[in-house]
Amino acid sequence: MNTSPRIPTFKTGVIRPVECVREGRVLIGDRYWVLVGINFVGLLLAGSAPLYILYGPMMCGIAYCFLALKRGEPFEFSDLFKGFGFFGPAFLAGLIQMLPIFILSMVAYLPLFLLFTVYRPERGGRPDEMFGYLYGGFWLVMLLVVFVSSITHLICIFSFPLVVEWKLNGWEAIKVSAQAVRGNLGGAVGLTLLCGLMFLGGMMVCGIGIYFVMPLIHAAWTVAYRRVFPEYPHHLETPPDPPKWQEWRPEGGV
């Protein structure tokens, strides 16, 4: 555990999945529909730009809103775009998370492309055999992508809140997040599985349901984040200007 004043320390063994979800539900309170809008627009913009340019900033914007909610501070829909204030670190953190998944997808789909070009009827390939390869290969690829994305997401789960609160750069945020997850591995895996079930339930409602469960998922992970990193880093804030020399008075002076 790093004790540098620039790098936050963290607690271990403090994530309780069911408790985090329950506290997250209470935390949302009457801000549910605002959070639905924040998640909907944030996720929509995150996936709209090439090379994941907006993924990190939008995730930081969402994290900013949920951290404000956890601290009991007011926030509004426009605060989503405060994530652009962390653009450099957020972009790097997002790119590190998404690049392995992108590369794996491209590499994994290459054999499918080759199978499609080789097994053609005019070249003596059997259509049912080709379909079997393609169908089986497709689901194999999907399982690999889901597995890698789940592991990557778990390792980096605290990176965006760390960028927002502690002003860490992207690589530092991911390293600290990975260390904190390792120290809370059982609870983090359990919460990932629980949130995965909620996400799957949302997907079953014509796909659009994921936007209605995302506020609860983010709230649960915000509760987990605060349990792991319990102290807000006031020491990183800019201190007030010192008093001017004209205002200085010695103790007991007039």
Write the layout of secondary structure elements.
Elements: H1 17-28, H2 32-46, H3 55-71, H4 87-118, H5 127-155, H6 159-166, H7 170-183, H8 185-203, H9 210-228
Helix pairs in contact: 1-8, 1-9, 2-3, 2-9, 3-4, 3-6, 3-9, 4-5, 4-7, 6-7, 8-9
Description:
It is a single chain. This protein is 65% helix and 0% strand. It is mostly helical and 254 residues long. The longest helix has 32 residues, at 87-118. Residues 1-5 and 238-246 have low confidence and may be disordered.
Please tag this protein with its features.
single chain; 254 residues; 9 helices
Which structural class is indicated by helix and strand composition? Answer: mainly alpha
Give the proportion of residues in helices.
Answer: 55-70%
Instruction: For the record, give the distance between the C-alpha atoms at the N and C termini, rounded to a whole number.
Output: 49 Å
Number of strands: 0
Task: Spell the H/E element sequence.
Answer: HHHHHHHHH
Helix tally?
A: 9
Mean pLDDT: 83
For the sheet with most strands, the description reads:
none
